[in-house]
Each structure stands twice: as structure tokens, then as C-alpha cells.
Amino acid sequence: MTTTKTALRVALIAGVSFLTMAGAASAQTASPADAEARIAALEAQLSALSSQIADLKAATAASLKDVRATQSATTVSIAGGKPTIASGDGAFSATFHGVMQLDVAQYYQDKGLPAVIGNARDLNSGTNFRRGRLGVDGKAFKVFDYGILLDFGGAGTDGATVLQELYLQYNYAPFKVKVGAFAPNVGLEDAASTNGALFPERPSAAEAARGLAGADRRISLQAQTVGERWILSGAVTGAKAGDAQTFDEQLGYVLRFAGTPLKGEDWLIHAGVNASGVITPAQTTALTGAYGVTLQDRPELRVDGQQLVSTGSVDATGAQHYGLELAAQKKNLLIQGEYFDYKIERRNAAAGVSDPKFTGWYIEGGLVLTGETRKYNTGTFAFDAPTIAKPFDLKKGQWGAWELAARYSVLDLNHHENAVLAADRVRGGEQTISTVGVNWFPNSVTKFSLDYLDVSIDRKDPAGGLVGLSQDYQAVNFRSQFAF
């Protein structure tokens, strides 16, 4: 706009100059009276043009002032239920978040089960605020992202209120560097938002993998680059924010490479690999030292927080996991799975004692009955909740999105469980879970889910018997969720 107005000024001045020269030439051949009249007319035109130029300058200054005022103005919006405050130039923003996830569960198992060797098998039917989060994230100086998130949930199973996230990220497309406390990018299920997940909890195999060097609250330095159809990320990780102090904290790493090698108009294939490792386990005792590494998980429901399969603490020099990701999506149908290998390297192992190895895997799928497609997030290369085509509205006869889901997962934490040499055995147990569920998304901020879990635990006690630590049970869980 400024360039156009400058050109107009030049044209006006050139026109006045041309008219002046023409008038002067005519004045040489005309009578003195005619020449004076023409000169007077030209002076009047020049005066009018000068006034127009003055008006144009004033208008230009006012427009620039309006533009600058717009750029510096603060905007407030609630897009998708998320309150956001942003500067007019987009350099700064703050988006507020809140999450409520309330679980109500009933466990169906034998009555009067004892607590055997600290393994509380009589599971608690009841309620649990799985997540109760408040936080803010946004931008600063255009190139920085930040996030602050507190979690008040997990009552009775996950401890008191914790600092869930606190990070700063620098963006220089296509690279991002992130530092602070957060969950580094470990795998397909790990990268997906828990607000839109198929089930209330991640598969145990994925939880065991992320728990080595990743997981929530992990203090990390992560770098990643994202292409149109792929993501590559790596992180150096330490302890978790809020953990008890040790004599030396854990040092580890996390790696992931994933993408969509095949993709069509209404379908895609996802593939990826991931890995993590504990380079130096945390030293938990002084002098002689103890460097314990543990693989374990709750049975994919946390109303009762008991971990029914666990390797126990293995004195180690390090540990690793390697994972494979595969998923296929066709319109409203999604099928995905991951396979994991885990290894713990023993410290000062005696003769005949091997390094324990374990495996875990899962396959799960969802069918959105109302036809919507689950979103494939190209920022995380994982699947989020479906976009709701017709939010719940009784007057309009709209019912939101409905989805059927199923999962089968296995986590085997046994290593040489029948070995003659007791020091070589790890009787962590094998857990298999079959889950079916239905999810209802009334709109983009609310979700209700009903899930049925069939759980089987095969675990020998230290004496080699299966009776003490093994059990089969079923559970029903209903979750109410509000998240923005």
C-alpha cells in the first residue's frame, strides 16, 4: 500500500510540472491577460493537488498507525474449547489446558485372596481420578515454545501432585530442540495423546519400554526433525522430576524414526523403529553401590495400582529396549501394534548367570461406527481422537462419534524361570490381557469409555510354585473425561 501511494505522489508532481511547463509555453504566444488567467488556473490546480497530497500523507500515517496498533493488539479466543491469549503479531501466546479423567472400576476375582510376598492380589474396586491436570503452553518471540503442566490426579496409585511437564523448545524449521521435564518420543503408543487414546491405559509392553529411559516427568534434552512423511528424534535423559534423591542419577537415551512409507487419499501405512537405553543406572546406595533396573507395569488399569508382573530390582550396568511399530488406517478403521525386546546387563554377575532378556507386544484396533477418521498427527506421527462431524445435540438428533475398540497385549518378564541356578532366574511373570471397549466422543472436549478386561497372570513364586502369584480375573472400567 505504501509503494502505491508513493507512486501516486510522483505522478501528481510530474503532472503539475508538465502542466506548468505547458502553461509557460502557451504564455509566450498568448496575450498578457490570457497568460495571467492561465497561470492563475495552474496555480489553483497546483494548490488543489498540494491539498490532496497533504490529505494522502495524513491518510497514510493513519493507516500505518492502525496497522501497528493491530499488530500490537492482544487477542482472546476459545478455539476448540481451549482459551488462548495471543499478541496481534503472533510472537507471544498462552493456551490454557485442563484435563479430568475419572475412572470407576469393578474387579471380578476370587474372594479372600491373600497378600503373598508383598504382591497384593485382592484388587481394589472403586474410583480414581486418573488425571487431573492444569497447565499452560504457548509461544514466545515466535521461535520458542513452552509448556507448564501440573497433575493432581492418580490418587492412591501414582502419588501426590506432581510437576508433569516444564519445558522450553526452540524451533528452527525443520528442527526442534527441547529441554526440561517431559515425556521424550519413545514409540507409537507413547507419542499419542492420552486424551484421545483407544483405551484408558497404554499397553503394558509399551509402558515397560517407555519406563526405562523415557516416561512422564523425565528430565531430557531432545532434538528432532520432521519431514512431510517422517520424523527422527533423539534425546539424552536423566532422572524424573520429583524422584527421590540418589547418590548418582540415571543417564540414558531415547531414539525414534517413524513415518508413512505408503499413503493414499483415504488410507495410510505407518512404520517405525524405536529404542532406548540406560547408560548408567541410578546409584541408590553409597560405598558398595546398588544400581537397580526394574521392568514392570500395572495391568492396564490404575484404579488399583498394584503391579502384578515385575522383574524386581536387577543390579545392572545398563539396559536397553528395541521396538518395531506398524499401523494401517483405511477411512474409519485403524489397526496398530508394536513389538519390544528388553535386555538388562547385570553388574558383577557370577559364573553361569546370564543377562536377562524379555519380550512384549500388542495389537489393537478401532472402528469409528459414525464414519469419522482418527486424526494422524504429523507432528508426533501417532494417531489422535477422531474429528467429530456432528457434535452431540439432542435437538438436532446428533450423537457425536462412536467407536468400537479391541486389544490383545502380552508382557513376558520371565527369564530362565526354571533354571537350576537360582541367581540366573527372573520370575517376573507373564501377563496377557484381552480388552474390548466402546468410546463415545460427544464433542471435541468430552469422552466416555466403557471397557472390559480379561487378565491372566502366570507367575511362579520363589519356591517355583504357580499357585502363590498367578491368577485370572476380569474387570470393567468406566471413564468420564473432559479435556481442553
Compact description:
The protein has 484 residues and is α+β, with helices and mostly antiparallel strands.
Low-pLDDT residue intervals, each spanning 5 or more residues: 8-13, 22-28
Percent in helix: 10-25%
At the fourth level of CATH, the homologous superfamily of the largest domain is Porin
Instruction: Identify the overall geometry.
Output: elongated
Distance between the ends: 40 Å
Structural notes for this entry:
The protein contains four helices and 25 strands. α1 runs antiparallel to α2. The relative contact order is 0.12. Residues 8-13 and 22-28 have low confidence and may be disordered. It is an alpha+beta fold. It has two domains: 2-71; 73-483, Porin (Beta Barrel), CATH 2.40.160.10. β23 (426-441) and β24 (446-458) form a beta hairpin. The protein has helices at 2-29, 32-72, 188-191, 204-213, and strands at residues 74-79, 82-87, 93-108, 115-116, 119-120, 126-140, 144-151, 162-172, 175-182, 218-226, 230-240, 251-263, 267-280, 292-293, 296-297, 309-310, 314-330, 333-346, 357-368, 374-377, 382-386, 401-415, 426-441, 446-458, 471-483. The two termini are 40 Å apart.
SSE blueprint:
Layout: H1 2-29, H2 32-72, E1 74-79, E2 82-87, E3 93-108, E4 115-116, E5 119-120, E6 126-140, E7 144-151, E8 162-172, E9 175-182, H3 188-191, H4 204-213, E10 218-226, E11 230-240, E12 251-263, E13 267-280, E14 292-293, E15 296-297, E16 309-310, E17 314-330, E18 333-346, E19 357-368, E20 374-377, E21 382-386, E22 401-415, E23 426-441, E24 446-458, E25 471-483
Antiparallel strand pairs: 1-2, 2-3, 3-6, 3-25, 4-5, 6-7, 7-8, 8-9, 9-10, 10-11, 11-12, 12-13, 13-17, 14-17, 15-16, 17-18, 18-19, 19-22, 20-21, 22-23, 23-24, 24-25
